FHA domain-containing protein
Amino acid sequence: MGVLKKFEQRLEGLVNGTFAKVFKSEVQPVEIAGALQRECDNNATIWNRDRTVVPNDFIVELSTPDFERLSPYSGQLGDELAGMVRDYAKQQRYTFMGPIKVHLEKADDLDTGLYRVRSRTLASSASQAPSAPGPAGAPPAGRPGGYGYPPAAPAGAPPMPAAPPPGGRPGGYGYPQPSAAPAGGRTRYWVEINGTRHQISRATLVMGRSTEADVRIDDPGVSRRHCEIRTGTPSTIQDLGSTNGIVVDGQHTTRATLRDGSRIVVGSTTVIYRQAEG
C-alpha cells in the first residue's frame, strides 16, 4: 500500500473527532502530503552511493481562510504530515540530518485553496557542531542556511558533487521525475470532469471552452483553448496562454508534470488526471 494511501486512512480514522473540521478547508491534507513528497524528491542531495539527504524542516504556507481553519489543529496535522514524510523517506531510502518538523504559516498573497511548501535541511546539534558565523547576511560556514539553502555536509562525508549523476534526483521543476513504465505494460490515460471520464487516446489533449477543443469545458472562466495535456513518461500539462491560468495540485503554474490523481483547476472547474497500467 502506498504511503499517501496509508496517510489518508489514518486521517479518516480521525474524521469523527474534532479533527474533522480540517476537511472543511479548501486545501486537503492529502494534497499537502503529496507536495511534501515532491519537496523531498526535488531537494534530495546525493552524498555518496549509500546516502541521499533530504530536507527535514518544512513550512506549508496557506491562504488566510485555510490557515484559520487548519491552525487549531496544526500540531496534530503537523505530526501526521511529519510521520508521512518519515514513511516516504524510508520507502525511498532517504536520510535526514535532524528531526522532521512541519509547520503551518499564513501567506497573505495566496488565495483560498492555494498553498506553497518551503523546506530546508536542518542539522540537529548532535549531528553537527556549531561553527563560526560567516559574513553578515550569509549562513554560518558549514551550517544549513534558510529555506532553499543546500544542506551542509554530514561529518566525514565526501565532498558533495557539483551536480547529481545522470539519472539521479531531483527531477523536473516542482515535481519528481517519475520512472519509466514497466516494459511490456500499456498505460491508459484519462481525465475526470464532474464525474464524467474522458479518455485520452492521442499523445495530446486540448481542453477549453471552444467546440474545437478535444474536451469542451462549459465554464466562463475557461479560455477557448485553455491548456494541453501531453501523455508520456512523464505526462505534462501546458497552459496555452489562457486568461485565468491553471492550478495544478494547489499551485499556480504554466507547465507541470502530472501524476495519477493530479488535480487541475481551470476557471472554476476541477479536472482529475488519471493514468493506469493495463
Notes: The CA atoms of residues 4 and 160 lie 31 Å apart.
